[in-house]
Amino acid sequence: MNRIQNVFKNKKADEKLMSLFITAGYPDLESTVDLILGFEENGADLIELGMPFSDPLADGPTIQHSSDVAIQNGITMNKIFEMVKEVRKQSEIPIILMGYMNPVLRYGVKAFTQKAEEAGVDGLIIPDIPLEEDGIIKEHAAKNNLDIIHLVAPNTSDERMKLADENSQGFVYCVSVTGVTGARDGEEVSNSVGRFIERVRANVTRNPVMVGFGIKTHKDAQSIASNADGFIVGSALIDTIKNHYPDEGWQSELFTFVHSLKFGN
């Protein structure tokens, strides 16, 4: 049982796990490790570490911006692996690399999965791999103890939800709205997500369910994830960094926000 599976196994019945997304190398190369450790101290249960790419298909302006900045900062795949290694010296929080297939192919699938495991990565979320084509990485991931996490959305058929469940390990990522990433009005998401999560629960029976896209407050998180195992926040974190960096105390502002997402205070 790996770190991801352990977190869900040890979850309290009424607890909503919190997974936080941060773009590696944003807002600067030096901060990523400190941010991950600070997120954990303030309630994060899992970390999704973004692998910046020049053409992020599923990302809205906020995460596109963070990827652009990270690339300008000189982020590379090897630097991302080094960041994970640094975290592993102090923490066992599950780390999932999230990004697109192009940089993985360029690095080499075999080499990428080996390096990821050596660094201490636990799983992969690669939104632009169709279920029918995940064989391109699935075997190498399995050999290196990396969970592959697939996404489902409101326009995903029941049949494909079942297929995503069969082909995922760790959890299934529920995209709460049809569209790109980005913080949205909480009511916009919660009004439409209930029926969708009910359908997910009927079709995803092997894996836990995490819901993301559009969450920016504790109230949003509890409402949107009421029938899920937990929630995922990304764009709202990037927005908070963008609003405070490089002012003195920007990390404290961010960690206060993270704490409020999980605990509501």
Strand and helix layout:
Layout: H1 3-9, E1 17-23, H2 32-41, E2 46-50, H3 61-73, H4 77-88, E3 95-98, H5 101-107, H6 109-119, E4 123-125, H7 135-143, E5 147-148, E6 151-152, H8 158-167, E7 172-175, H9 186-203, E8 209-212, H10 218-224, E9 230-233, H11 235-244, H12 250-263
Parallel strand pairs: 1-2, 1-9, 2-3, 3-4, 4-5, 6-7, 7-8, 8-9
Helix pairs in contact: 2-4, 4-6, 6-7, 9-10, 11-12
Give the structure's gist in a few sentences.
The protein is of the alpha/beta class and about 260 residues long.
Could you walk me through the main structural features you see in this protein, from its secondary elements to its overall organization?
- By secondary structure, this protein is an alpha/beta fold.
- The chain has one domain (16-263): Alpha-Beta Barrel (TIM Barrel), CATH 3.20.20.70.
- It has 12 helices and 9 strands.
- It has a 9-stranded parallel β-sheet with strand order 5-4-3-2-1-9-8-7-6.
- Helix 9 (186-203) links the parallel strand 7 (172-175) and strand 8 (209-212).
- The radius of gyration is 17 Å and the shape is globular.
- It starts with a helix and ends with a helix.
